[in-house]
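Worked Example 4.2. Consider the chain below.
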Amino acid sequence: MLNQLKTILPENVEWGPFAAFPSSVRLAVIAGQPSEAELFTIRVKVPGGVKLMPHRHSEDRIYTVISSVFYIGVGKNSSPTNWRRIRPAR
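Applying the procedure from the previous section yields the following structure tokens:
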């Protein structure tokens, strides 16, 4: 575990495209390196109406929705009946 405190202001977040996502989606690496076997934090901006294709992750994930609503598929079937609706905390 790192013993540091780091503040990242919204205006200092560097957003960029990510090849696995549609061109309108932006990704920012906040801490760590996602390509390495270490803890990392990323943020993703997905415009309304954009859908990310079904896929899997080999590591555990924690999702935090900052604004709007995020639907995530759970399980082997990507049917909308298996989607979970995640909203920002109030």
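The chain has a mean pLDDT of 83. The CA atoms of residues 12 and 43 lie 13 Å apart. Compare this with Example 4.1 before moving on.
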